[in-house]
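Repro:
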Amino acid sequence: MSCYFLDSSAFLKLFVQEAGTDAIIRLMESTEDNRKLISAGTLLEVYAVLKRRERAGAISHEDSEAARSILRVEVARMVQQPLNPAVLEAARQLLDHYELRSGDALQLGSAVVAREMFQGLEITFVSASPHMLEVARAEHFHTMDPTATAAHQP
């Protein structure tokens, strides 16, 4: 059985139409809720992106508000990896080995801890960031880039 861990760059595509949105929608529709994983911090990251785009005039207030409402519903359907001490330690270790922003380290650290908790399940790390996909592959994750819709083996 496989699960999908969506980082913020992938999860955002459910709420903003952009390259990869169709692939993420297909993935979400074809995957049971208990096999869709995110970091508990993803809600805040995506919320911030929506507000930032609204303030910049890239999306209307009404569209941003609608997207934020849907965001809350979608997050509630996902398995959320809490930002606990194990995730913080995994993120710190990732920072020791890779050039990552703190938010990216928390995303990947959450995936690492989730993989440890759900031993026996294959977790595919889903991201629209080439750098995050590269680091995830280095950490022995299967990966998926929704903008390319191709999975890569570790």
